[in-house]
Amino acid sequence: MLMARLKVSLRSFLEDTRGLITVETVLSMPLLFWAMTATFDFFEIHRYKSVREKGTFTIADMISRETRAGGLTSIYLDNAKILFDEITNDDGVNQIRVSVVKYSDHKKEYSIAWSQVRGTGPLVPLTDGDVKNAHASLPDVNHGEEVILVESTSSYQPLFNVGLDDVTIGTRVFSAIRFTAQVCYEGVCGLQK
Fold first, then answer.
1. I need a surface site. Which of 98, 104, 109, 138 has the fewest CB within 10 A?
2. Residues 24, 54: Cα–Cα separation, whole Å
3. Mapping DSSP to helix (H, G, I), strand (E, B) and coil, where does residue 78 land?
């Protein structure tokens, strides 16, 4: 008798639909809100990266067109960093590294003609040791040819707490020198190797 009543009460409870929408709303709204904020943050990370890529491409293209006899100056690179910050439209911590990499077919290795860093962050000027045997990460070029390497790094801080930590966005762009044989930095054009 008690079991029969319990079965009837349990069946009645399971078939009752009153308050169902309230329960579903209470369960699904936090998940829906998290999904909306996470989607916004993921979109924002991609937008953030895209803008930095465009800024890095702009700096590389700008330097590849230089024809100054004395080469680039410290002021030029300072202003290139300011331009990068303007393109990216943020006051965050941005850093750029501009390097000219040369290839020697005789030695089958790369070397640095010059390398400069602007901004604060993890980037340091490249050395010959950093690129000497970096065949997998540097483009194939002819003997004695130089290529401009512009790298940028920034840190994205998510707007919402959806389980993401700060994301470091790094970009690398190679560009051929267009109108001169070399792009120098304050008279330093690299050693003839």
1. 104
2. 45
3. helix
Q: Are 152 and 93 in contact (CB under 8 A)?
A: no
Amino acid present at 10: L
Whether 98 and 80 have beta carbons less than 8 Å apart is answered as yes
72 DSSP 8-state letter: B
Is 193's pLDDT higher than 50?
no
Of 82, 102, 126, nearest to 177 by C-alpha is 102
Residue from 169, 181, 180 nearest 84 by CA:
169
Q: Is the pLDDT of residue 114 over 90?
A: yes
Report the interhelical angle of 74-88 vs 20-64 (nearest 10°): 150
pLDDT of 76 > 80? The answer is yes
DSSP output for 3-24: HHHHHHHHHHHHH--TTHHHHH
